[in-house]
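It is worth pausing here to work through a concrete case rather than discussing structure prediction in the abstract. The textbook approach is simple: state the sequence, then state the predicted structure, then interpret. We follow exactly that order.
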Amino acid sequence: MKAGSKFLNAVSAFALSASVVTSGAGVLVLASALSAEAAVIRSVQVRGAQRTGDAAVRSNLTIRPGVNFSNGDIDESVRKLYATGYFSDVKIAVSGSTLVVTVNENQLVNQVVFNGNRKITDDKLEQAVQTQPLSPYSQNTINSDIERIRQAYSAIGRSDVQVTTQTAPVGQGRVNLAFVINEGDRTKIADITFTGNKAYGEGRLKAVILTKESGPLSFLTRKDIYSDAKLRADEEALRQFYYNHGYPDFRVISSNAVLDEASNQYNITFTVEEGQRYEYGAVNVDSTIQGVSGADLQGLVQTRQGNTYDSREIQKSMEAISKRVAAAGYPFARVTPRGDRNMGNNTIGVSYVVDQGERAYVERIEVRGNTRTRDYVIRREFDFSEGDAFNQEMISRAKRRLEALGYFTTVNISTAQGSSPDRVVVVVDVEDQSTGSFGIGAGYSPGDNGNGLMLEASIEEKNFLGRGQYIRVAVGGGLDDSRTYNISFTEPYFLGYRLAAGFDLFKSQTSSNDYYKYEEQGVTLRVTAPITDNLATTFRYTYKQIKYKNDGAFGADSLPFTADDRLSYPYIDMINQEDFVSSSVSQTLTYNTLDSQTLPRDGIYATVTHEYAGLGGDSDFYKISGRARYFHTLSTEADLIGSLAVGAGHVVSTGDDLHVYDQFIIGGRQIRGFKNNGIGPRAVKSGSAQEGDGLGGTTYFTASAEVSMPMPAFPEDFGLRLAAFADAGTLYGNDVNMGTSTAQGTGMSWRASVGAGIMWASPFGNLRVDYAKPILKEDFDEVQEFRFSMANQF
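Step two, the predicted structure:
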């Protein structure tokens, strides 16, 4: 017994003398006698946890009384205690049957402040850092926060920002923490160069990419901010540009951005390999699905033999085929384009192979990166939801729709493996952009018939509160006491359906040259429904109240007019009545295949509207009108864009005579060089040769041709373009009761003008100035040679 007791006492003494020791970094050292076998303790003693509390320390230990533990358990306990961030030092020792845990607590952060920041607000920096009031003071966390602040400044173009910290003890183990920021100067992009490009010049390629060289207005556009993500997006933009213009072998070999720290400027170089330009060879559709004929699907193909290779046409063909096959009962069908390259004549034959595809379902749709736009605004652009069949072509269609919204600078959709092999996670990465705009329109009418300067200001938001709603408010006026007020609102998904419903409130007033003031106010209710991806229909109901008032031409007490007055002045009965009501319904078909809504280079935009008035009120007519404009790139290298436009309209009375406000009014918007309502029939006082007010007309035709190109001597990515145009049109016919007076210019007399314009995609928006000179006109027409318009993104 004594011998055994001495042996046990010796082991205990050895264990005590070789108890666990940790360094300042918390590295554990165990006695070799205990390293090979497990031990057991009866209790845990915590020392130094004054603020944290013993219970919090014990909860992070993997060692429990009465349970065997080893070196690995002690290591894990030390790591967990350090991971809490509350301790600067941790020591664990075994004393007899007691585990002693000694900790030194970190100080607590009492307050976090930011000094020296002007370009980024405190609120945004607080969201970026992880150190918060009442959190433990951790140097590792603070170092990470410094890097996060640097990244936030790099994102706004200030890569040379310097961030340091200062602390001030406030007692009771607490400190105030200050991030001291030296924002530095903006990091600019000095130069962007391309090597390996032969088909397209450097200026044309600079216009394709998102990153721009620094210039005098870069502090407004912010397009000269460098980021790795933006550089990757530029690579993809170059690929798509070449793929869409006949170069399927195009590659970006490298893209390098080198920061010159002395000048704080980047130099960016893209090295590319263009490959050969191809045209389409033979195009066919092969189907392996029983009951689905490739010949029946051939008509859906947009690629045509002999046309220049365009990846957009291939994608649209795949989507159209997939949609048709899915509608036939094969939701998992896969469409795969296969190319047959002929190096001899630079053609690519395309075979669209349709097969059953693998069964896969959408497990979930994950939206990331949207800081402003609501998730549901993005999700509703998909034709499927969680649990539906997965189809790759639907992904491409959703991506195109999201890009067309104009809410995002970038849209990327990828897929990931779900919880099982037949489950797919759809990941949507977007980056919000400004969707508000401020617009100014102006015109000037010189000469005796002119009314001087006219202005209109408007503000609009395409993504109101991130809900995808559209709202616009506009106010206008001129020196002739004319005034206009407009408010518009649109909900793009009314009642959860793809129906764009909205309303327009409007009010306007204008003065006659001769004897009346015209006031109009009302409301339009409308709803737009898509028919296909390119075709939509809009239904409207419009209610208007119209007032004509004596402008004093006949004296202050001239109303009511006498019978002699009615014989002397045209449509005087309207002035005598003063108040009118118009109630009408209309329907518009819109066909839109434009490749861009801001600067279209290819495509058609066409509308046809017919309207019926007579649902109560004083107007009874049927009116039909339409306009179509075709865009085509005449030279891709020179970025020369041509467009042709035609328009026409006709109105007939379905009751009594038409009123003046029922007839068409055209002018400077359709035929530049003339004032709005500056052409067409005009009233002439009985017994006078002096032309009077415009009456409008029952029929009109217009045509226009325009060519635009980048402004010579300016970098193409500056956004300045020069345009030359020619307009022509006619407005004739009159169905207004003129009494004994006459209407001048009711015949089909053509007007024409030629001119030039300057367009600028400026930091203030799309700005345009036109000068047009009428070359064919009537003596009584009203001319407006200069027109100015602007729409600003902010």
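Step three, interpretation. Residues 452 and 479 are 6 Å apart (CA to CA). Confidence is low (pLDDT under 50) at residues 1-37, 445-450, 552-575.
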